[in-house]
Amino acid sequence: MAIRKTNATVFGLALALGGCTFAEEALWPSLTGERAQPAQQVQIAPSAAEQQQRQAAQAAIAVQPPPALGTGTFAAPEVTPGQPTGTFVGQKVVQFRGELRQMQQSLANHNTRLQQVRNKTVQDSQRYHGTVAAINARLQVGTTPGNPVLVQQWKTAQTELDGIVDDIARMNALATDVSSDSTMAAYLLESVRAAYGLAGAVDEDHRQLAILEDDTNRTVVVIDRLLNELTEDITRQGNYLSSERSNLTTLSLAIKNGELYGSSLASRAYVPLPSGQVSEAAPAIGPGASVAAGSGGRRPLVVIRFDRPNVAYEQALYTAVSRALERRPQAMFDLVAVSPSRGGASQPALSATSSRRHAETVLRSLTEMGLPPERVRLSAMSSATAQTSEVHIYVR
Length: 396
Prior knowledge:
The chain contains seven helices and five strands, in the order H-E-H-H-H-H-E-H-E-H-E-E. By secondary structure, the protein is an alpha+beta fold.
């Protein structure tokens, strides 16, 4: 089957991905499962523009910013000293002043712990991103499938990411301690205010109570700021960790196939569809092409023909789904297992089983790339025009 050449780059990739076709010519030309005849390979030096693009791509991979963390430091103002008055209320003032100093010392310890865990988190993130950047850089220039060096680096990256899990656990423990101090500070403030109503006080007692109330108020504000910023750090790190785990899963698939895919599909912004909303149907198939039965006249985004063992479809599949999500972030997908209806009495049943197994393989690939399973709807059908087991993917 002749392949219409759109440009040199696409044509070259078309020969490499014979088992996977796209109906949308803006993405890829139509491909067949036929094996290409051996041809003499000619090495062509990249142009200056291509060299600059490669360098820019590798620089983009190498520079991965660590997750943003708060930068605040938290220290309460010193407690204002006072002289004992000898009254019962004066004794209470001395007691409250001592409790406030203990609380401020606890706050200083919490601030030290916060700065330490932040520094460790930044270091762990930098090590992790450095390892991932090395993997991406090697995949960028091409490597062998399942390269053991990259597999070991991936395991190292996973261990380094687990270090960030420990950092988040330390932040949670610190947040628990700060929350406890926040409760005690609020109780101390209420106790100071209640002391105004005690009998047997002199004017100096009330003056010192007012100063102590102001000092306690300022301490409460600092504690609350610390707790708020720490909570933001925990939330930010939790989201980052979830995203990077998904990216590691996608990266493991890229190492398995020896080619760079990109970030996880889960990192894209998904817009939930309102209840009852039906997505716009894909364009109809153009003249001269066929439509699989049961597709509703839609053009498939991807057609994967399993006409030989080990069809290399992952890179083309990732590119197609990634571009579809760039255009329509709310998109969902129909994954259809298509089996030939030809043959004897038992052949259609065997073909249907084979096509379903291939569809499950494609679904597993999409999940490993980071696409949430709930965005994919599975179905199956038979086709009189299909020559072999196929998997069609439609955008809805």
